[in-house]
Amino acid sequence: MIDFTFPPEVEEVRLKVREFMDTRVRPAWEAIDQDNRDEVVKTIVELRKEAHDDWGLWLPHMPPEWGGMGLGPTAMAAVSAEASKVGIGPFVINAQAPDEGNQHTLLHWGTDEQKEKYLKPLCNGTARSCFAMTEPEVAGSDPTLIKTFAYQDGDEWVINGHKWFISGARGAKFAMLVARTEEDPDIPQAANSCFIVDLPSEGWNVVRDVHTMSGGHNHCEILIEDLRVPAENMLGGRGQGHLLGQYRLGPARLAHCMRWIGQAEIALDMMVERAMERYSHGSILAEKQGIQWLISDSAVELYQCKLMVLHAAYQIEHGMDFTAVVSMAKHFVANSLWRIIDRAIQVHGALGYSTDTPLAGMLQQARWARFADGADEIHQMRIAQRTIAAFNDDGTTKKATGNLPL
């Protein structure tokens, strides 16, 4: 039997997160000036304390020994989808990017000393971090091309390079920095290593917050000039930067999908509500076939998104090879998010295009989903390659389409 329900304990947590978001987080978020950074920070800090002390909703993805709730990927799909229905929801429960991915990475790759110094404050919520890999001069989808270079000088590494779109860099207490350490590796994927950089540090220069179509959101350009990092701050082994990055990005891609599902569901709910309320040309919008098609397409896509994310989470949780399904989910959910929000705007008309509803801001934010953590075209290329390889190996593409028992 295939059971598509959550266990009672997971359902209990999901509903608790929903209640917390509905009764405490959303009202607090909507009551402040969201463009006022001081107000935003103050609100998040207060709600974090409430989440930790009063609601027991803190660090859901981390083990109890690190102060977390010990939820697996499938349960996290439920929690993240609920939390992400409010913009600051993931921050309030300390499950936001990039810190969530960095916490997992430190837990898996860090030494005991590194975990004590860097993971512990991250889990306690007393520090933030960033992950510095993307560079303006080379394709972000191909980390083997990274030009930031590190050479060893005694007990230190000296690093020079250029990074950008480093989310959360301003205010971060440390960075995970990926740099090239090998001149002529046996394979291109063994050229990079990862370093933990204490911030601020001499040689780590924040040039600017790169503004996007949705404004500035602490996605920084960094100039690295003779930055010195202690040898003991290498995270993982020498030449394992690519491996570490892929370990981090796989589940992180799915975590993004989980959050996007929450946003897509909000958009669909708003679409239906508007269609039920708006009267035009003799009937409400919900009775018009053109509007029904927009609703139908969105409902079908959201259903597909949820199934793909749950199946990918299941594979991660059971130690299966999840690379292919996460890649497909990331590509599909990112595109569905854009389409569903766009349809919701269409049903709202000029109101949806205005900032009187959250839809315009949601669409601006959604656009980055199709290239962050792997552009659409890269995922499509890999999906095609795996599908062809499956057919060549087995005479069927079954393995490349989820390897489901159908």
Automatic annotation (TrEMBL):
GO terms for cellular component: cytoplasm. Its cofactor is FAD. InterPro entries: Acyl-CoA_dehydrogenase, Acyl-CoA_Oxase/DH_mid-dom, Acyl-CoA_Oxase/DH_mid-dom_sf, AcylCo_DH-like_C, AcylCo_DH/oxidase_C, AcylCoA_DH/ox_N, AcylCoA_DH/ox_N_sf, AcylCoA_DH/oxidase_NM_dom_sf. Residues 8-125 form the Acyl-CoA dehydrogenase/oxidase N-terminal domain. Residues 240-386 form the Acyl-CoA dehydrogenase/oxidase C-terminal domain. It comes from the Bacteria. GO terms for molecular function: acyl-CoA dehydrogenase activity; flavin adenine dinucleotide binding. Keywords: FAD, Flavoprotein, Oxidoreductase. Residues 130-226 form the Acyl-CoA oxidase/dehydrogenase middle domain. GO terms for biological process: fatty acid beta-oxidation using acyl-CoA dehydrogenase. Pfam families: Acyl-CoA_dh_1, Acyl-CoA_dh_M, Acyl-CoA_dh_N. Gene3D superfamilies: Acyl-CoA dehydrogenase/oxidase, N-terminal domain (1.10.540.10), Butyryl-CoA Dehydrogenase, subunit A, domain 2 (2.40.110.10), Butyryl-CoA Dehydrogenase, subunit A, domain 3 (1.20.140.10). Homodimer. Belongs to the acyl-CoA dehydrogenase family. This is Acyl-CoA dehydrogenase. It comes from Ilumatobacter fluminis.
